[in-house]
Specification:
By secondary structure, the chain is an alpha/beta fold. The chain has one domain: P-loop containing nucleotide triphosphate hydrolases (Rossmann fold), CATH 3.40.50. It has four helices and five strands; from the N terminus they run αβαβββαβα. The chain has helices at about 25-35, 50-65, 95-105, 125-135, and strands at about 45-50, 75-80, 80-85, 90-95, 115. It has a five-stranded mixed sheet. A hairpin with a 2-residue loop joins β2 and β3 (about 80-85). α3 (about 95-105) packs across α4 (about 125-135). It is globular, with a radius of gyration of 14 Å. It is an enzyme of class 3 (hydrolase). InterPro entries: DEAD/DEAH_box_helicase_dom (IPR011545), Helicase_ATP-bd (IPR014001), P-loop_NTPase (IPR027417). It comes from Trifolium medium. Keywords: ATP-binding, Helicase, Hydrolase, Nucleotide-binding, RNA-binding.
């Protein structure tokens, strides 16, 4: 996995079988890599999920795997509800939540990584998010 994680690449597409860890393990791997490189305090990962229930349940699972309470380094944000703290470095949210953030923060200031999960479940929000994120990439 480390060979594909190169700062030269701004976009990486991950494809794998159901249950192989794309949703739960990849974000943790990125966070742990940033911590090992002494960039953990600067790391801010947003991982989108197509549905509220998946954003919440995945965040609960990842926090449990970290051996911590939800809202510490791992949190979630869905419409009208969220659990995150000052030290949250990995935030699971719905696609709509990230789109609303982009309305007020076009540059995603402070965000170091964006993971658009379950993109094969294409919808209008997901397609629009990809267009907006593409425009954020440095040319």
């Amino acid at each position: 996995m480390m060979s594909m994680y190169d700062p030269l690449y701004k976009v990486i597409v991950i494809s794998g079988e159901t249950g192989c860890g794309k949703t739960t393990q990849l974000p943790q791997y990125i966070l742990e890599s940033e911590i090992e490189a002494a960039r953990g305090a600067l790391c801010n990962i947003i991982c989108t999920q197509p549905r509220r229930i998946s954003a919440i349940s995945v965040s609960e699972r990842v926090a449990a795997e970290h051996g911590e309470k939800l809202g510490e380094s791992v949190g979630y944000k869905v419409r009208l509800e969220g659990m995150r703290g000052r030290d949250t470095r990995l935030l699971f949210c719905t696609t709509g939540v990230l789109l609303r953030r982009l309305l007020v923060d076009r540059s995603l200031k402070g965000v170091t990584h964006v993971i658009v999960d379950e993109i094969h479940e294409r919808g209008m929000n997901e397609d629009f998010l990809l267009i907006v994120l593409k425009d954020l990439l440095p040319r």
